[in-house]
Amino acid sequence: MAQGLTAGELRLEDQDTLVQKLKEAKEELFNLRFQAATGQLESHGRLRAVRREIARIYTVMRERELGIVTVEKESSDG
User: Fold this and answer.
1) Which residues contact 44 (CB under 8 A, 6 or more apart)?
2) For residue 22, which of 71, 66, 48, 59 has the smallest C-alpha distance?
3) What's the mean pLDDT in 48-65?
4) Cα distance between residue 22 and residue 31, in whole Å
5) Tell me, what's the pLDDT at 71?
6) Membrane spanning segments where (predicted)?
7) Terminal CA-to-CA distance of the chain, rounded, Å?
8) What pLDDT is stored for residue 5 in this prediction?
9) Is residue 54 exposed (0-12), middle (13-18) or buried (19+ Cβ within 10 Å)?
10) How far is CA 39 from CA 15, 31, 45, in A?
11) Which of 55, 66, 75, 64 is nearest to 15 (CA)?
């Protein structure tokens, strides 16, 4: 998963992409937690970063659900 995803960047993605990014982030979080439990984790800061990415994705998805922010579809003239 790309590091440093901002909410603005996530708002430009479609719903399917957000779901995929969420799945990837959750898998990464699981792997990081497993590494932490076995003492193999080198970067503890990455745990925090991945948790925040997950929260950002959930926030953008919820904003769309409530109609706070909508995705503007590109119109194709042709």
Assistant:
1) 36
2) 59
3) 94
4) 14
5) 66
6) none
7) 35
8) 82
9) middle
10) 36, 12, 15
11) 64
Q: Are 31 and 58 in contact (CB under 8 A)?
A: no
pLDDT in tens, 10-51: 999 999 999 999 999 999 999 999 999 999 999 999 999 999
Of the candidates 64, 70, 49, the one whose C-alpha atom is nearest the C-alpha of residue 19 is 64
Residue 23, amino acid = K
pTM value is 0.81
CA 37 – CA 2 distance, rounded (Å): 24
Residue reference for tokens 């603005």: 8
Please report the beta strands in the chain, taking only residues with DSSP state E, as ranges in sequence order.
none
Q: Rounded distance, CA 33 to CA 10, Å?
A: 24
